[in-house]
Amino acid sequence: MITFGKSARDCGTGRKIRMNKTILCIGAGYVGGPTMAVIADKCPDYKVIVVDKNTERIAAWNSARLPIYEPGLDEVVQRARGRNLFFTTDVEAGIKEADIIFVSVNTPTKTFGEGAGKAADLQYWEKTARSIVECATRDKIVIEKSTLPVRTAEAMQRILLSNDKGLKFEVISNPEFMAEGTAVTDLQKPDRVLIGGMETPAGQQALQAVVDIYAHWVPKERILTTNLWSSELSKLVSNAMLAQRISSVNSISALCEKTDANILEVSRAMGHDSRIGSKFLRASIGFGGSCFQKDILNLVYLCEFYGLPEVAAYWEQVVKMNEYQEERFVNKILTSMFNTVAGKRIALFGFAFKADTGDTRESPAIYISKLLLDEHAELAIYDPKALDNAKVDLAGIPGKIEYTHDPMAAIQGAHAIAILTEWQEFTTYDYREIFARMEKPAFIFDGRNLLDHKALFEIGFNVYPLGQKALTHLI
Ligand code: UDX
Ligand code: UDX
Fold first, then answer.
1. Which atom of ligand 2 is closest in space to residue 289's alpha carbon?
2. Could you give the angle at which helices 309-336 and 364-374 cross, rounded to 10 degrees?
3. pLDDT in the model for residue 460
4. What span, in angstroms and rounded, lies between the C-alpha atoms of 40 and 42?
């Protein structure tokens, strides 16, 4: 257990540092861990404690092998850990000591009761709010870091203020916009930091305390302040807008395949319009990740709840289009391989929901694997970082699955390769050698438009990109 004090020693210089305030983060996940590591790194005058109920996770944060893979994270953690950054399971002591509490516990889609399948399950958030009330002995600022439905802060404030100790709590919304794989640079150089507070003097004072943290390294013009409800809603809508671009471009990839237009050229032509912009126009097998689907469904539920069925249907279509794109990819594999993949070995290159992360939450690879297994395909899965998670995701699903740390083992005797994640290393392989070791005819289905399709075709592969003409030797 750590002892909480108001001063600590900088490991690098041995200098004694005075700690201004203590920040606590409840939830040491993909969001809480990196965010607090960067805050501690940038604000040596704050003590930052990260707590989690999961002992294994905390042990990993305190070890040489962090629980999540993020480029650049090891260095940041090493600089701050033990100096002004501490990981512990002692929630109670953390709450007592903290001036400012970030709450970054998970808010998954509800699986039961009213709003099942769409609404956010707020049970962890509510439990956390209750623990804060129970353990606190003085006033606190409580910050919503988890993505929450609009007006959650109202319910939270009610729980927090229901205490009989005369304590005051100010709720602030400070949603996180970092993306996995680039979390550290996104946190160090954010496009914007959004902070929402109540429009009362106490609310504004609390808001300023949070601005002061980020002002250590974020230029003032990038720190946006709004009212609480705008901040909560902006997070949901930002994710919905990003996902909507992907679904839009994926829908057009289907049309490209019918018309011999090329989705890469269409995306490039659209993206050159500065009003549209070039980002998030990459056609893919579909978006994954812990946020997009959950946040859109949450938005859909909110719209239904507030009596806006047309708005709800509009956003729900973004998720439906995503499912369609995943199914379309599997159908393409099936029809191209003579309408059967039963007993055929298919090498899956990549399982993570995007490159540079080991995270597989809502990864399109999960659904695609299940659909292929339904067709009795035999899967050989290779991913440089996500194999452990893949095993958990597919546990108990009937069918033949091999997990391998060697891509060459995955393709041995395979009929097809499906590229499911855009790991750059896939572009560096010797595809002549791979072709030689595969069954013929050999197929490549590039679900990320990552590889050099012409070169593969010349080697002898039948190549099926997304939203582009297939290059096939079959008559
Ligand atoms: C989570 C939410 O999924 C997302 O909506 C939100 O925007 C930020 O927080 P993430 O950090 O990716 O994102 O989730 P996860 O990696 O699951 O981390 C949550 C952590 O909270 C877990 O380590 C879990 O053990 C911890 N937790 C959860 C607690 O410590 N106490 C609880 O009561 C519940
Ligand atoms: C997203 C948001 O970008 C981030 O701001 C928010 O805080 C959390 O949710 P993340 O899910 O980590 O971040 O990754 P992101 O880069 O947005 O990718 C999400 C999914 O969209 C991935 O599966 C990715 O492969 C896919 N994608 C992205 C595409 O299919 N095409 C694109 O052009 C961009």
1. 11
2. 50
3. 98
4. 6
Q: Which ligand is nearest the CA of 447, by number?
A: 2
Identify the residues whose C-beta falls under 6 Å from ligand 1. 26-32, 52-54, 57, 104-107, 124, 127-128, 145-147, 176, 290
The span from the CA of 415 to the CA of 461, in Å, is 10
Phi and psi (nearest 5°) for 83? Answer: -95, -70
Options 25, 256, 291, 303, the catalytic residue: 291
The number of the ligand 1 atom at minimal distance from the alpha carbon of 105 is: 21
Question: Which pTM was predicted?
Answer: 0.91
**Hey, what are 395's tokens?**
């546990």
pLDDT score at 17: 56
| Ligand 1 mean position, distance from CA 191 (Å) | 23
Yes or no: say if 40 and 48 are a contact pair by the CB < 8 Å rule.
yes
How far is ligand 1, taken at its centre, from the CA of residue 29, in Å? 5
Give the pLDDT score at 125.
Answer: 87
Ligand located closest to 177 CA: 2
Provide the β-strand partners of residue 193: 223
Q: What pLDDT sits at residue 324?
A: 98
DSSP 399: S
302 alpha carbon – ligand 1 mean position (Å): 22
User: 338: part of which helix (H) or strand (E)?
Assistant: none
* pLDDT value of position 4: 37
Taking CA atoms, 379 is separated from 73, 250, 442, in Å, by: 32, 25, 15
Q: Can you list the alpha helix ranges (DSSP code H) found in 29-90?
A: 32-42, 55-61, 73-80
Nearest to 278 by CA among 288, 266, 260, 286: 266
| pLDDT for the residue numbered 146 | 83
Contact 24, 12 (CB under 8 A): no
Tell how far CA 132 is from the center of its chain. Answer: 27
What is d(CA 127, CA 100) in angstroms, rounded to the nearest whole number?
18
Structure tokens given for 276: 């549209």
User: What single letter denotes the amino acid at residue 375?
Assistant: E
Q: Which residues does the chain have with pLDDT short of 70? A: 1-18
CA 246 to chain centre: 15
Say if CB 435 and CB 462 are below 8 A apart. Answer: no
- CA-to-CA distance for 151 and 144, rounded, in angstroms? 11
Q: Is 303 a catalytic residue?
A: no
Q: Which helix (H) or strand (E) holds 374?
A: helix 364-374
CB 38 within 8 A of CB 85: no
Residue 181 CB coordination number (10 Å): 21
Residue 120 bridge partners (DSSP) = 109
Nearest CA to ligand 1 atom 1: 106
